[in-house]
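[stage:ingest] chain + small molecule (phosphoenolpyruvate)
[stage:ingest] validated
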Amino acid sequence: MNNNSNFKKWLTDLQLNHPLVIAGPCSAETEEQVMATAHLLKDTDTTFYRAGIWKPRTRPGMFEGVGVVGLPWLKRVKEETGLKTATEVANAMHVEQALKFDIDLLWIGARSAVSPFIVQEIAEALQGTDKIVLVKNPVNPDLPLWLGAVERLYQVGIEKLGVIHRGFSSYHEKVYRNKPKWPLAIELRKQFPDLPLILDPSHICGKRELIFEVCQTGLDLNYDGFMIETHVDPTVAWSDAAQQITPQRLVEITRDLRVKQPESHETDYLKQLTIFRKELDQLDQNLIELLATRMQIAEQIGKLKQDKNVTILQSDRWNQIMDNMISSGTQRGLSTEFIDKLFKAIHLESIQHQQKVK
Ligand code: PEP
Ligand code: MN
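[stage:predict] done
[stage:export] tokens:
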């Protein structure tokens, strides 16, 4: 797989004048629920109607999807509304059944993307089709594993590819159900600029109230589109009830999002941008010089400690620096999280410089 491949062709061929929208319920529950939701999505920005037929649930005993009986419902959606259809596949049998019912887009879920065996099995079952296949990020933030899954599909000849960022599970996280890792998506973009990048705010947020702002962040980072769980009556959904939205809310969200241009060639804008960028470049240079000076002083401290046979790490002093910097930084509008990360990195580098002293 190389980064010159024309992965985006399937997306440009759709000729949308807005970001791609894949919408529909977490799970297909009943024929009525599937049809009612689809009819409400018919005249929205939605291109693909999603519905989970087989549901990977965290614990047994939860609703695990209706299975193959739901596939004719999706066929009916396509016939009655003209929406294209999409579902998750997690093994060769799912692929075989989904292809039989002419599902247009298949995605590999986060729990399957972690397993090279499963991905390989799915890829081989897909060989010879020209369906669109999207790979969700694995539950753990491992970019090579995510890209490896895409490569397995590419190797069997699938070219209509894309990835979905649905966030990463983490034990301590409070705000999100699955924390987004924007830098990872930016890195992926850098390596494969042409690979469509879709955002799944539903599984990131876990609650519908946060969906709008996460979508806006996605657009600000040039995402190509969204997969958003949408249900005719989210409150009674059989799975992921708290994060699903109504078709009406979906329309409001797509209406209110600010879609921006990747670039502008307007002269005044470019002039002003150049001025600001020069200032930033100078400040970045100053930062490097300050950091270098800081490390030279750290080395002198290292020498002093060495002479007196004192340990390098002194936790009290370090905690005091961190507290001072967080208080000073937050007063100037910098976030605690940023100061914490920055000074941990500075401290580590400082320790390494002190260790270098002979
Ligand atoms: C889903 O899209 O319904 C789903 C199960 O997602 P994920 O694989 O991201 O958990
Ligand atoms: Mn779901």
